[in-house]
Amino acid sequence: MRVALDAMGGDRAPQVPVHGAVLAAREGVEVVLVGDEPALRAELARHRAELPIVHAPDRILMEDQATEVRRRPQSSIMVAMGLLKRGEAQALVSMGHTGAVMAAALFTLGRVKGVERPALLVEFPSRGGRTFLLDGGANADCRPGFLVQFAAMGLAYAEASGVLAPKVGLLSIGEEEGKGNALVLEAYPLLKEALGPRFYGNVEGRDIFLGTAEVVVTDGFTGNVVLKLAEGEAKVLLAWIKEALTSSPLARLGALLAGRALRRVKERVDPAQYGAMPLLGVEGAVFIGHGSADALAVKNALLRAKALVEAGLMNRVRQNLAALHV
Known about the structure:
With 326 residues, this protein is of the alpha/beta class. The protein is 46% helix and 16% strand. It is globular.
């Protein structure tokens, strides 16, 4: 099984993507690098490593328009999508321009049957383990039917991740069925009919971290606000903890004694542990990470892509969408 890596995507490409690929390869992932071959070979030489390369002379920068992928077929993301389309890779990871990756996926791969809009899935640590939220920002405006499709795809991802009997919650401002905006009020009966006992009902923002429902669906505007809020709060809380634990000699002694436990907490809230977000609903396993990702995030994205493809993610998505009753 091969994972194609857009090695020219991201704020610090190709240095960080290549470093992450080398780390993943050492853990058993068969990675093929896509990008400018001379630059990639120079980076591999720094790590004294050898990985297969598919040359792509062009790259999409963060400031470029997403729609440019159509007229730039030699860009690294388009060449990587071609590998996925032809079956020469079974998954694709990019830390590049999110909009460009989405546009390239739709243009090259197309949508899974039954999907009107693909969605980004965001993974949050929760009291019960993990919570999967869709949409993380691919669709700012949604129709009620989109949320039903998001639910089906989110269930498929949760199942492929090893979650037993996951349930779906609809993000709202109250648990009661009659609470929410027009989108929530219209989506509620559709989700109830389509999912049956797998639909938990309304959940509030705090429930994401309590693990009340393993899958939470919302529109991309709200989902992206939740994502950025959670990431910002995690950084601030960790900074406060560090400040408190270095404020006095006694506090520093306590930090030394609790060091291992504190590292475990940091790892649970660190986005690098999740690597990248899957773009669900396109005909291929595509994962998109932060442009500012470090080598650990790239490595973890590659490991996760491999594991999910081997767990049958795409077949689960197709089956769940085909089984919808709406």
